Amino acid sequence: MTKNLWNLLNSTISIFMLLFLPSAVLAGDLYVQSIKARILSSPSLGSRIVVEANRGEVLKELEKEGNWFKVSYKESTGWVSRLLVGPKPPSGKVSVLEETEEKLEKGSRRRASAFATAAAARGLAEERARISDQLKVDYDGLEWMEKINISDEKAAMFIIKGVGK
Amino acid sequence: MNRLFKLISSILFLTFPVFYMTVSHASDDFRKRAPQVEETFTEDDDIRAEIVFGRELAARIIGKYGIYKNNDITQYVNMLGKGLSQYTNRPELEFRFAVLDTDSINAFAAPGGYIFITKGALKAIEDEAELAGVLAHEIAHVSERHIVKELDIKGKDESTVANIGRIIGGNTEFLRGVFTQMVDEAADILFEKGFKKQDEIDADRIATLIITTAGYDPSALSRYLKKISSDEKEGKTIGSTHPLFSERIEKIDTLLVDNNLAGKKYEIVKERFHENVRLR
After folding, report:
1. First and final CA of chain A: distance in angstroms?
2. pLDDT tens digit string along B201-242?
3. Which end of chain B has fewer CB atoms at under 10 Å, N or C?
4. Is the Cα dihedral B61, B66, B69, B72 positive or negative?
């Protein structure tokens, strides 16, 4: 009889825990946004590197402390900076320039958002007169800057080569 | 038997407030977090708004200083800057870098990934790690959306006054004027008022994370700031929008000590910097 009552007690507490605790401790997936994210042995930049995860890989959030998440990744557990991860998978590049060019060159081949269409109409060649009251505006210089085209991969390799890693 | 029932009731009575408080705390915590979730600009329209706004601001930065059209140096700065930008949580942005044609020592960031460093700053820099530190600081202003948050730039939220989507889409002189005013306000932050002190300190902290993760000397930004703050004392022209040198240096140095990074030897990549940047 006593045993049954203890079982009842345990079941009651378990039901409470099932009902209420998940909302307090439920942790989500974190996706690596940076090209690589170091998972460190403690929430400190200089601590030992446990493992490195690549962009797009999923880390399981275990807890949060300041700017750091404690995560599990494959067989390892460690700390990752909140600045390198996000709650959604990393997205591809967003560019207003490509949509603008596509629209200007080929018409509205695909449905651009109202925003992009408006940006296209206002953004480049047609609106040069839209000059600030106070400041000079240099779109030629801007376009010179935007013509430089370096891939993420090439730039990443450049850094790795420079620091010798 | 009765005692056991009393025991059960007592435990439930005593534990319920704890559970209640836990749940209540979790809800409070969620409420605190909820606005932050709303503030994250993950929707494409918000990102487009950020880029379109940043382009306009970039055109004003170039308008003020002029662009230094040296292909080799610009390629080098882009290679380094784009590499560093991949150590942030903004893979959706195409970061772009250019050198401004002025001997004043400064660097600027416009939303959407438009980053500038002056010729004067490049002359003051002594190695690639220092350049990485300066660029990473500007990248951090973009990745943390400091101007975007300051001016509440969004692409789709109808409730915000600064609804860039509506402003850009609206084809009236009034809305064009609003847009121009907003960009001018952002230019005022860059050229006159400066970022909030906390934004500068956060950008230094994130820059240190970026360069350390990429493999560069974590103290490089602090070294650069110490150098230009002493240049300032000697009367050289330093841009007025990055004040608080002593406080920033102190915060970075504390960060390095706290993270066990002080005094360790890391890559500074001096040779490659001087091969690519020949301005003296």
Report:
1. 68
2. 999 999 999 999 999 999 999 999 999 988 765 555 555 555
3. C
4. negative
From B165's Cα to the closest Cα of chain A, the distance in A is: 5
Q: What is the pLDDT of residues B47-86, one digit of tens each?
A: 888 898 999 999 999 999 999 999 999 999 999 999 999 9
Q: Which two tokens stand for residue B278?
A: 């020949």
Q: Check residue A48 and report its DSSP letter.
A: P
- Token reading at B63: 């308008």
Q: What is the CATH number of domain A26-86?
A: 2.30.30.40
For chain B, the distance separating the N- and C-terminal CA atoms, rounded to the nearest angstrom, is 92
8 Å CB contact between A130 and B60: no
DSSP character string of A81-126: EGGGEESSPPP----HHHHHHHHHHH-SSS---HHHHHHHHHHSGG
Torsion of CA B255, B260, B262, B264, to 10 degrees: -150
How much of chain B is helix, strand and coil, in % rounded to 5? 65, 10, 25
Coil, strand or helix: which one is B51?
A: helix
Helix, strand, coil percentages for chain A (3-state, nearest 5): 45, 20, 35
Q: What pLDDT score does B36 carry? A: 40
Question: Across the interface, do B260 and A34 touch by the CB < 8 Å criterion?
Answer: no
Report which secondary-structure segment, H or E, holds B25.
helix B2-39
* Strand runs labelled E in chain B: 96-100, 107-110, 114-118
Contact state of B86 with A155 under an 8 Å Cβ cutoff = yes
Is the distance from CB of B153 to CB of B144 less than 8 angstroms? Answer: no
How far apart CA B35 and CA B40 sit, in angstroms, is: 9
Please give the Cα distance from A33 to B129 (Å, whole number).
Answer: 23
Residue B25 with chain A: CB contacts under 8 Å: 24
Question: What is the phi/psi pair of residue A151, to 5°?
Answer: -75, 155
Domain boundaries, chain B: 40-276
Enumerate the residues of chain A whose CB falls inside 8 A of the CB of residue B65: none
Query: Where in the sequence of chain A do the CATH 2.30.30.40 domains occur?
Result: 26-86
Partners of residue A76 on adjacent β-strands: A73
Backbone angles phi, psi at A35, to 5 degrees: -60, -40
